[in-house]
TrEMBL record:
Keyword Magnesium: yes
Naturally occurring in which organism (per UniProt): Brevibacillus thermoruber
Residues that bind 5-aminolevulinate 1: 205, 217
Biological-process GO terms, alphabetical: heme biosynthetic process
Functional note: Catalyzes an early step in the biosynthesis of tetrapyrroles. Binds two molecules of 5-aminolevulinate per subunit, each at a distinct site, and catalyzes their condensation to form porphobilinogen.
UniProt-listed Enzyme Commission number(s): 4.2.1.24
Family listed: Belongs to the ALAD family.
NCBIfam families in the record: PRK09283.1
The protein, known as: Delta-aminolevulinic acid dehydratase
Cofactor: Zn(2+)
Gene behind this protein: hemB
Keywords, in A-Z order: Heme biosynthesis, Lyase, Magnesium, Metal-binding, Porphyrin biosynthesis, Zinc
InterPro entries linked to this entry: ALAD, Aldolase_TIM
Amino acid sequence: MALTFDRHRRLRSSAAMRSLVRENHVRVEDLIYPIFVVEGSNVKEEIPSMPGVYHFSLDRLNEEIDEVAALGIQSVLVFGVPEHKDACGSEAYNDDAVTQRAIRQIKERHPELVVIADTCLCQYTDHGHCGVLHDGDVVNDESLKLLAATAVSQAKAGADIIAPSNMMDGFVAAIRAALDEAGFTHVPIMSYAVKYASSFYGPFRDAAHSAPKSGDRKTYQMDPANAREGLREAASDVAEGADFLMVKPGLAFMDMVLRLRESFHLPIVVYNVSAEYSMVKAAAANGWIDEERIVMETMVGFKRAGADLIITYHAKDVAKWLAR
């Protein structure tokens, strides 16, 4: 008697067959590459906890930008690391600060690149928090004024997209109003809509010199245990005028990527954060994993969960692998 069952393996019989029926694809156009710009001269210093990622001074920045453009990567996310820091993060909204100068330089050299500006105060404040402190607490509404000024300054410098990562209540509304008033109605907002108070940011704080001097960020970044709260945060940002929604970190919270994809029709962005990157690099350096296969599987996972765009420190490597 012949058995009756489904022959699923028919569609896996060869590489060509598997490629023919593949449901999700990673493209170089999906990648956003973060760049860290510092003051000084002749600086190209590898970040110890992030192998292959560097601090660049403006006079060395073109080396990195030229490589990014040559690889076909179309978007960069700019983080500035200033020398001067103060209680209100005044360098964040200084039109001649390192971030704004970097944005202008990138757009002048490669106008076709989409330049995304991270809009926060943490790397500009002497206390390391993402807003203004009063008696040890981050005050929301006063911080919004400075974040809005930062966004306008970045747009004036030529940023194509403003990406606020501060997690203050009402930050999208405040920034949207300020951009519109300043004549930047065409500049979209990529909201860090679902950003968790995560341990996966450790290496980034080395890169951005942004670790808080006291306390933590749990009163404004989200509790990693919560999912419904993330949907409320995203819904607020959509109502306030966000043009993109982001989930950060990515790997531990892919369920939120899927939830946002199913709930909203805006482009969904996932941030493959610093510790996710560094753990792969460390394991690969020890010969424990196949780096290319692990990274590409991760990228496909993000796409399968519903991400349209992927911010990743692996972007240059992924672009090379895709080209090959």
